[in-house]
Amino acid sequence: MTDNRISLAELERGTPFEQRHVGPDHGAQAKMLAHLGYASLDELTAAAVPDVIKSTDRLQLPEGRTEAEVLAELRDLARRNSVLSSMIGLGYYGTFTPPVVLRNVMENPAWYTAYTPYQPEISQGRLEALLNFQTVVADLTGLPTSGASLLDEPTAAAEAMALARRVGKVKKGVFLVDADCLPQTVAVLRTRAEPTGVEVVVADLTDGIPAEVAERGVFGLLLQYPGASGAVRDHRSVIEQAHGLGAIVTVAADLLALTLLTSPGDLGADIAVGSSQRFGVPMGFGGPHAGYMAVRDTFARSLPGRLVGVSKDADGTQAYRLALQTREQHIRREKATSNICTAQVLLAVMAGMYAVHHGPDGLAAIARRTHRYATLLARGLSDGGVEVTTGTFFDTVTARVPGRAAEIVERAREAGVNIRHVDADHVGMACDETTTREQLTAVWDAFGVQADVEELDGAVTDALPRDLLRTDEYLTHPVFHEHRSETSLLRYLRRLADRDYALDRGMIPLGSCTMKLNATTEMEAVTWPEFGGLHPFAPADQAEGYLTLIRELEERLAEVTGYDKVSIQPNAGSQGELAGLLAVRAYHRANGDDQRDVCLIPSSAHGTNAASAVMAGMKVVIVKTGEEGDITMEDLREKIAQHGDRLAVLMVTYPSTHGVFEENISEVCAAVHDAGGQVYVDGANLNALLGLARPGRFGADVSHLNLHKTFCIPHGGGGPGVGPVGVRAHLAPYLPNHPLQPLAGPETGIGPISGAPWGSAGILPISWAYMRLMGGEGLRRATQVAVLSANYIAKRLEPHFPVLYTGPHGLVAHECIIDVRPLTKATGVSIDDVAKRLIDYGFHAPTMSFPVAGTLMIEPTESEDLAEVDRFCEAMIAIRAEIDKVSSGEWSAENSPLRNAPHTAAQLSGGWDFPYTRAEAAFPAGVQAADKYWPPVRRIDGAFGDRNLVCSCPPVEEYDG
Predict the structure, then answer these.
(1) What does the pLDDT look like over 686-727, one tens digit per residue?
(2) What one-character-per-residue DSSP string does 137-177 give?
(3) What region holds the Glycine dehydrogenase C-terminal domain (predicted)?
(4) Nearest 5 degrees, angle CA 395-CA 401-CA 402?
């Protein structure tokens, strides 16, 4: 019967979004609580969370709203953005995202909910797509080894600077930057260089390297090709001069221009960097976009970030994997040369598929059209008496208009076109794939020039230097020629997606990585043109909706963390770490404490902590952790006393990396503060704190947050991410700022951390929507259910696998670590065997061997329902039974389903010489044949791939489709 007492207002609200986001319903929660011996969520978290950190007040956030209401609010914000035709350029351009790529990659959860491909057997589709991206970059730059993307062009240039210093023969000297480089790149270089003692010198290199600079020594050189002014210069002589000085040469190059211009490799460059944004990725007010780096073979093993390589599986079948993992900061820690942790995989996939969609001929046609518009624009201006200062150019034209620049920019704006105000006397205009004849006319009118496209078209000639025209072939691999029809490309994308395991298939229980629901409502606004089409350097009054969304998001993040100020500029968690540490460094220096350069880090910390500290110019000192995973207070006090007034900061993850709420955190913070240091709390595990405790209130001074973890931005197969930094008031003056946008940060700030003023602004609507949908109470309950689910799993698995660490009352936080080492010692079954066998059961493995080798760190999140959580537990219990069969001698470890996992369909259809059945291999307990996920390859030989490094599409004769 209908309950007529329910009000119309209640009926209109419908089901609260919280019930969509949180997996276990009330009945499931009651069952899980009963299993743990608690009567309510409040009772559980009261026992799990130490009193010293608990928040006594509720979050002051707007009440959660329905999905329809939040979408309406986002529509209102979108309408407050004015998306004019952009001709600003400076590394950001209009582009048409092929609809087949937009719908089937960017908007497809099979692609955007996947995790970093550390389990390559279930990431073959994504890895092939990244190999396509690497091939595009390698071919166009003329350098044989490309990475699988970096964060953006300026940070890629900064990584190139660090690489040049590391591998070059000149160990002192300066990093020389051409004056025609992008201004945001120069600014990021300065931010990154100063803490490590590198001097960046900017000079006009048109006539070569100035003698006074050469005399000082030059370890690295950066050139822009084409330049920020638009000029296309032949850099061969200055590159040769730099090599004569022993310098490593980096060229920041435009990929679209390289379809027509001689490649950086052929010019003599050692490294090429840049952005792939104009390959079908919306501007998004600055990001996310996939930066790139390509290097000579000599430097392949020193390349920062991730590198996809070709290897083979147990049957000798070609397979892909991340290559040379020992370069990663997770392993090298304070010896790491980069803190890059998040790539831009989703955007790299889009850019690679843009090239697959168009092929080399299509890309060249787009480039020629773009160049043609630029030549028409320049000719119309010059015929009208305007001085055009760029004689040879690709897409960007600079005009000299003494004293009139502001007036002309404003007139163009009134006509619906944004152009660049270079200075009082110069204006810049960039053409792109989306440029129209109407835009040219509007720009000419702004200059007071009358011109006609049709008349000029027959009269103008190209403005590219003839001796720089490209003559070699590129993108010759079949993948860039086979998918001209949409039918073919659609099926190719589906085929690759089917080879992967993402959150849309099932649970990804990765500890520390928080693979939770990325709701469709949260994702929807990202592709709206009002958010996607805005240039990051557009006038602020054209971005009122964006700026309101950013301000509200920063304020709400400050509220939930207890900090006074938040900056969302860092475009990855690693960059948020760096920004926070640079703020601490600047604070100490402002107080006259220049000597404070020691960063204390627990031995259990995430690898990027130590790498970020070194990049911030600090000396890393390791603090011991005890048997329960908590910081050893005695050792902490010894280290504080030992380093005295050199102590700058302690970096600590809370809850700890071991998945527990440390009860002594306030004591830890007090000890560091008493010694004059600052406390940095890594926000990787914030999903255990929201609504329960606030780092800024229990002793921390600064934290970075992971919006791609706690706040629902999807991992995208290994990026994008956003890593805001939150600080207490005394550190607020030292947050990131930006030279091209005063609103982006304080005047006293540390400089820009990313190329765009607000980082990866294009995906911020996701986190804004999540917080708006959930409200304060919804966020709190989500945290409580995350803690409930982790403890439920720990309790269920404890009889079968030891739970390594627990906190108060024997409880964990939002994740638990199970110990496989005793079983490995007794049977030879390795942690890899367990992880790969989970694939046969239809699961992505938990986090392996972090923070303790031979263990699995499991984080269910609040989004997985009880049926899926139980399915995972039952799979783990069944795997334990299989290990027992090895222990009993029924199977040997080498000839068990664990060691042979994962099992492919091809393997099952061939000969069979195993002591277990095909059904036991492919359909273990709980796996339904109709729903079976079939891995495309067997276990991959990583060592073979590292010894035989191949990082672009294999030769045609090896291509298997």
Answers:
(1) 999 999 999 999 999 999 999 999 999 999 999 999 999 999
(2) HHHHHT-SEE-S-BS-HHHHHHHHHHHHHHHSS--SSEEEE
(3) 782-903
(4) 145
Contact at 8 Å (CB) between 751 and 765?
no
Q: Distance (Å, rounded) from C-alpha 910 to C-alpha 918?
A: 10
Instruction: pLDDT band for 961, please (50, 70, 90 cuts).
Output: very low
Residue from 518, 520, 526 nearest 74 by CA: 526
Q: Which residues contact 491 (CB under 8 A, 6 or more apart)?
A: none
Calpha distance 266→296 (Å, rounded): 11
Residue that has been written with the tokens 């470890």 in this structure: 893
CA–CA separation, 608 and 605 (whole Å): 8
- Distances 929 to 822, 857, 905, 918 between C-alpha atoms, Å: 33, 29, 12, 12
* Residue 959: pLDDT band with limits 50, 70, 90: very low
Which of these, 318, 349, 366, 286, lies nearest to 110 by C-alpha position?
349
Which one-letter amino acid corresponds to residue 507?
A: M
CA distances from 233 to 475, 538, 560, 861 (A): 25, 28, 51, 53
Tokens standing for residue 712: 């629902």
CA–CA distance, 759 with 741 (Å, rounded to integer): 12
Q: What pLDDT was estimated at residue 604?
A: 81
Q: Based on the number of CB atoms within 10 Å of its own CB, is 241 exposed (0-12), middle (13-18) or buried (19 or more)?
A: middle
**If you write DSSP's letter for every residue of 916-948 in order, what string do you get?**
S-HHHHHS-TT--GGG----SS--EEHHHHHHS
pLDDT digits (tens, 9 = 90+) for 232-284: 999 999 999 999 999 999 999 999 999 999 999 999 999 999 999 999 999 99
Section 300-307 average pLDDT: 90
The total of other beta-carbon atoms located within 10 Å of residue 858's CB is 28
Q: Quick one: angle between helices 124-141 and 486-498, nearest 10? A: 120
Burial label for 261, CB within 10 Å (0-12, 13-18, 19+), is: buried
Local structure of residue 261 (DSSP, 8 states): B
Relative orientation angle of helices 764-797 and 26-36, to the nearest 10 degrees: 40
Check: CB of residue 280 under 8 Å from CB of residue 99: no
Please state the pTM of the whole predicted model: 0.96
Q: Distance between CA atoms of 386 and 444, rounded to whole angstroms? A: 10
Burial level of 238, CB count in 10 A (0-12/13-18/19+)? Answer: buried
* Domains of the chain as residue ranges with CATH: 550-772 (3.40.640.10), 775-931 (3.90.1150.10)
Measured CA to CA in angstroms, residue 590 lies from 594, 648, 730 at distances of 8, 13, 11
Residue 590 CB partners (closer than 8 Å, separation 6+): 733, 734
3-state SS assignment for residue 254: coil
Residue 721 φ/ψ, nearest 5 degrees: -140, 170
Residues whose CB is less than 8 angstroms from the CB of residue 79 and which lie 6 or more positions away in sequence, other chains included: 530, 545
